[in-house]
Amino acid sequence: MEILSYLINGLGLGSVYAIIALGYTMVYGIAKMLNFAHGDIIMVGAYLSFFAMTRFQLPVIVSVALAVLGCTILGVVVERLAYKPLRQATSLSVLITAIGVSYFLQNSAQLLWSSSTKVYPTIISNGAIKIGSLSISYLSILTILVCILVMTCLTLFVNKTKTGQAMRACAEDKGAAQLMGINVNHIISITFAIGSGLAAIAAVLLCAAYPSVSPTLGSMPGIKAFTAAVFGGIGSIPGAFLGGILLGVIETLTKAYISTQLSDAIVFAVLIIVLLIKPAGLLGKKVSEKV
Amino acid sequence: MKEKLAQMFQSKNRSRTLSFGLVIIAYIVLEVLLLTGNLSSLFTSLLVPVCCYIVAAIGLNLNVGISGELNLGQGGFMSVGAFVAVCVSGVLSYSIPSPIIRLIASILCGAIAAGVIGALIGIPVLKLQGDYLAIVTLAFGQIIKSIINNLYIGYDKNGFQMSFVENKLALAEGGKALLSGPMGATGTDRIATFTFGVILVLLSLLIVYNLMYSRNGRAIMAARDNRIAAESVGINVANTKMLAFVTSAMLAGAAGALYALNYATLAPSKFDFNLSILILVYVVLGGLGNMTGTIIATTVLVLLPELLRSLQDYRMLIYAIILIVIMLVTNNEFLKEKFSKLRLGKKGAMK
User: What is the mean pLDDT of residues A149-158?
Assistant: First the structure.
């Protein structure tokens, strides 16, 4: 029974990684860039929801909505100001700019809200459902449900709507998409908006599990979720979901059964092994190059 | 002699001469300032670290600029070099009293250890095409950080003792703990000197330039520019990339070793993902494949936060903004055009 409860905890953590990884994978799929500032968008989301709940005493749902709105706007603004002028530049220049944006957000947060850690309010009671000897916390259930909801909505959006179709077209061939009358810049903006909005949701779930808010909050989950996206096959939405869940489960199980201190090392070692066996990631498509 | 001198300033060799000249002149100026006591203590303390960052950045530029493979784990290789060097130096301190020989031996061991690990990573990864090296080196940096965070090594008259995760060292009298988990290396002899740092920079320039202008170097660049064309003329792409990657890792190892021997204590968390990224920033801003640019960019960017110190809390914010603005300006089509016209104009005037 013990392993089952660890498994469910792992699913909860994995769901958060999956939601963050969706942001990485969508941006990579469409704009072909590694958005290293994504982790810091999570941090901003955490602060926004924190202040909405503590300083303005708003209800949880409203605070989450505000955080999502704030992050969406931030994501679009960052894209417009920092990444859009670099559409034709080399991928390394874009990477460095993203790192600059990441530093910028972290240091702004430090100036605006000080570097001291703040305690995040509880948004869901600490109770748990008990089935026999197995206990499942409400938080895990909520996180997993939110992840499934997000995943379903996103899949429907990408597969059934016209904008979603345009997104897939851009991911496949930007030039051809433009010739078909798709406004590529507009699609990229929408991608950033969705990714950043999801980051805010992930932020709230993350802070509910680990209730402390600091300016560097987003870096480690960011790196882990990026790993998850690569793990599942970067550019693929189901891949990010699968990668995130697996990463969360592996991390929780190693923490429980092998070693807490070495869990990071083991998680990243698994990533390396997977990439060596299946270079395109678990669900990634192998693209052969035309000569 | 005259011919030699003329050769040095030929267009092919100009960049090489320029970077060697720059380092030597900078060294002489700084030494004079040091001897006359005109250098503030802050700058004096930065001299060796700047040399270390330059060596690591030159190595990374070989990997990213010349070989075209992104590496996000240069900090990890520095870490390997650093902690191997600390152990070697600690052990040798019993038998070899001369600090110079100990320094050279430790740095060599650090470089070789980093090179071996680089080779182990490179063998499977460099056969793949795409950004895999970037992700695997990122993962490697995290792995090495958490391993060293949990590693305890001690040395006494009975030999080495090692334990993992928990500190189980039971050292005999006169023994010393070389690595102690999250605390890292403590009680290291500070044997690194600025002169040796500059020698290391010159040495790494020598290695990289000789590689660049050799047959192997041309093969590396050919593989970068067009993998398929390079393969079709018989270049073994994986091997050439391996050469660049391992050399880069060894330089990072040497840099890390020098860095570690400059401080009495050093925590493993120093060599994290941020450090790898920082070095990548030096390389990209200095110009891919441009070693002189790397040296200048590294020096300026290491000193910049210190120079901005009077602005206190705002300095890292300003640093971030400078980074973004430089990227936006250097990639601006309009400005690029203006700049190239300006250059053409100059050339025309010279005729």
Answer: 93
Chain B residues whose beta carbon lies within 8 Å of the beta carbon of residue A277: none
Domains annotated on chain B, with CATH? 7-144+183-348 (1.10.3470)
Choice among B132-141, B222-231, B290-299 with the minimum mean pLDDT: B132-141
Tally of domains within chain A: 1
Identify the CA nearest to A95 among candidates B74, B144, B324, B257: B324
Q: Hey, what are B26's tokens? A: 């900078």
Asked if B324 lies within 8 A of A82 by C-beta distance, the reply is yes
Question: Residues of A at the B interface (Cβ-Cβ below 8 Å)?
Answer: 36, 82, 85-86, 88-89, 92-93, 95-97, 99-101, 103-104, 107-108, 110-111, 219, 223, 227, 230, 259, 261-262, 264-265, 268-269, 271-272, 275-276, 279, 289, 291
Q: Is B234 helix (H, G, I), strand (E, B) or coil?
A: coil
If residue B263 lies in a helix (H) or strand (E), which one and from where to where?
Answer: none
Comparing CA positions, the residue from A153, A128, A2 lying closest to residue A68 is A153
Q: CB–CB of B316 and A103 under 8 A?
A: yes
DSSP conformation letters of B38-98: -S-HHHHHHHHHHHHHHHHHHHHHIIIIIS----S-HHHHHHHHHHHHHHHHHHHHHH---
pLDDT of res. B346? 47
Which tens digits make up the pLDDT trace of B112-121? 999 999 999 9
Q: Which ipTM was obtained for this model?
A: 0.81
**What distance in Å separates residue A140's CA from the closest CA in chain B?**
27
**Residue B229, number of CB atoms within 10 A of its CB:** 12
Helix, strand, or coil here: A1? coil
pTM: 0.85
| Containing structural domain, residue A44 | 2-228
